[in-house]
Amino acid sequence: MPTVSPSEYAMRDPYGTLGIPRTASEADIKSAYRKLAKELHPDRNKDQPNAAEKFSDITRAYDLLSDKNKRAQFDRGEIDGEGNPANPFGGMGARGGYRPGSAYGAGPGQGGFRESEFGGGDDVDLSDLFEGLFGGRKSQQQQAGARRGFGRQPPPPPPRRGADIQYRLAVPFVDAAAGRDQRITLADGKAINLKLPSGVEDGTMMRLKDNGHPGAGGNGDGIVMVAVGTHPFFRREGDNIRMDLPITLDEAVRGAKVKCPTVDGAVMLTIKPGSSGGTVLRLGGKGWTRKNANLAESKHERGDQLVTLEIQLPVDLAPLKERLEGWIDPARPREKFGL
């Protein structure tokens, strides 16, 4: 019997390909795929000639296990690791035909055809049926076997689809936050507009159906990995975006209306008189696109922008010192610490 290498077993078993147990949750499956996708992406393994093949293997495994119906079929042994039927002749009748563990020509009730199923007690010549199914003349030995039951010759494997093509799409932070469409050029030179999914994040994988290499069973797919860029003063926190906004001492004391940047452009922000450093102001709907937004819970399809005020003292402190000469603030801000 030919041996099978561990890598070949992993290709057949999507759980082994992703390195997870069969009891893995949906979150475990997604986490394992995202980790492997980053490690095995061809752009990061240009010195590895089989990187694209490994990447396609984990993508195929993720596609199967992330589909609840296909995963259940695989767990029951109905399909293999590539989604093909595991036993094409499995449903041809429980009463007759070949059964595992039985021999051709077995008697009634032992896996062979019973007399009552075809009428009469003589053996039935099924060679014509086999010739109709598989074509060509059968040898005498094959015809003799056909009289007793179905043969073991499997159907030809289905034609394979073409290989997938991997892309890395760099998306600016502000575009990812606002969910703006991106332009991407495919391997065939065609440029298309790509709609980012809600809640997109660094490492998100997107599938472009039938945009891969051609094959006898159809085209493969295009697999796009999103790389979200960083920003000099915006940072993501869940569905919200945070930033620190410097204001002058007089703006904090007297209050003011100041311009504040957002991913959608600058807006006017009202600073209340007597605002302290560290005060957080909220700009509703100026955050990150929400994944599966529930407008019953939130009136915005995006999170909020949280602005932390930073009081910036003047570079030249002499005029300020002159104005504060002899004045001492009676407040005790550290009293809560027992100091």
Explain this structure to me?
The chain is an alpha+beta fold. The protein folds into four domains: 6-75, Helix Hairpins, CATH 1.10.287; 123-152, no CATH class; 165-228, HSP40/DNAj peptide-binding domain (Sandwich), CATH 2.60.260; 235-325, Urease metallochaperone UreE, N-terminal domain (HSP40/DNAj peptide-binding domain, Sandwich). 26% of the residues lie in helices and 18% in strands. The chain has eleven helices and eleven strands. It has helices spanning 6-12, 14-18, 26-40, 51-65, 68-75, 115-118, 127-134, 140-148, 173-178, 249-254, 318-323; strands at 165-171, 182-185, 191-194, 205-208, 222-228, 235-237, 240-248, 256-260, 267-271, 280-283, 305-312. A hairpin with a 2-residue loop joins strand 6 (235-237) and strand 7 (240-248). The radius of gyration is 34 Å and the shape is elongated. 19% of the residues are buried.
Structure keywords:
339 residues; alpha+beta; Helix Hairpins; HSP40/DNAj peptide-binding domain; four-stranded mixed beta sheet; three-stranded mixed beta sheet; 11 helices; 26% helix; disordered N terminus
